[in-house]
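Input for the complex:
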Amino acid sequence: MSADEMRADEAKPGESVHRGDPVVVDRYTAGARINHWITAACLILLAISGMALFHPSLFGLTALFGGGQATRAIHPWIGVVLFFSFSGLFLRFWRLNLWKGADTTWLARLNKVLGNRDHEDPDLVEIGKYNAGQKMVFWGMTLLILTLIGSGLVIWDEYFASYTTITQKRLAVLLHAGAAVAIICIWIVHVYAAIWVRGTISAMTKGQVTGGWAWRHHRKWLRELVTGGPRPAE
Amino acid sequence: MFPPIPNPDLKAATKFGEKDLIRRSASRVAEPAQKLTPMAKLIDVSKCIGCKACQSACLEWNDLREPVGFNDGTYNNPPDLTPTSLTVMKFTEWVNPETRNLEWLIRKDGCMHCADPGCLKACPAPGAIVQYSNGIVDFVHENCIGCGYCVKGCPFNIPRISKADSKAYKCTLCSDRVSVGQGPACAKACPTQAIVFGTKDEMKQWADGRIKDLKSRGYKNAGLYDPPGVGGTHVMYVLHHADQPEIYAGLPRDPRISPLVEIWKGVAKYAGLAVMGAFAVFGVLHHAVMGPNRVTREDESAAKQLTETQS
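Predicted:
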């Protein structure tokens, strides 16, 4: 074990602190990043191809997929890839996204967070690997992807037309459109937060963040990494 | 009798074009300068003998071949509309509870050519479904993407998606024949003139005469099926029991575009785009007002200190 890797043997996979100036913290494994970017690419392609069929003024986007017929044929398959890819992310991250009492406090003081004043509030400083906003993105995505894959199968007429009634298909198509709008809104929040909070994007490009970033936004997580986990000394 | 439709002078005839469109799916069209006379097909169920000449004529004219299927124990053959059978006879054996008589209710099923077409409203592909000013609703197959939205939009369960080319098919009201002054192939082939074709006004008058005749023969509920929920249709039925259209193989009593489809194709579009736009605008504004959330030098040194005190 090299001298600048602290407690790497005790940290969770992909998470360790490298001493230096600045301190560098590993946040995501290469596997998690690849998994994330496959999901991200699918979500963007689904949003573009879906919006092309959602509003007539956006129908021209079908040209990106080789025309209307090709868009109609490929959209559901991208959805299947996204479903399995997101399932991977879900298995990786669900435990860390369980809701805690502190998350409710964070949410109640959302105006402070958005106003860049969260660092003045001692209750908003000690945050684990994910804050309440990130957790809501995670669970929102989870619920909406389940809704989208479920309603999507009902309206995937090429293979499943005969399994449902037309009324069920009408309900599914409305649900699908509504869930798609909601998930695109969550996606906008997710991307905007990554841009607004400088230093975040490197977590998903290099897998690493600076120690200062971890101190500022996820101090509890950083402490746990440095001291070797939340478990009390046995 | 309604006079048979004569063969017209083909030299004088012109095809329908863009100038005749009053609706085009996922598009806006200009109001046509000159509107065609609204046309209609009238199907007099009380006169139908179930010979299927109309069905054969439809296959012939449209050069379609229905694959050999299975007999399901009824006269219905094929049992339902298919991408190649744009019209089928639906045979219902109905016992009239008042007279205890068995009545053959034989309805020719197919596209009703609604004045307010649900298929066209639901279609996302520009120009895949068009409505001419004479009332004919037609599918333009080169623009069809096979999404099946028309199936969800239709209040009559008419369009069928072909497994061969993934495109939607339904009765065209022989728009190619009508555009050169001929009547639909089914009307031309009908041996009893149960199917007649002409202007919508003529067809309503003709129906009135038939309804009077039926009433004089004891069918007190005889009437015309031209449902107002879809703005009227350009295929109408004379029914001997117009008070209960359901007995004619499930003809809907009050068809209209499903409210789910109206929401999906109406408010959801504008609200959906507006909500997504609002989120994006909020992000831009928030960043413009608050600026980026940057890590400070103090944060970095605090992290450094933390790591060093723990070693």
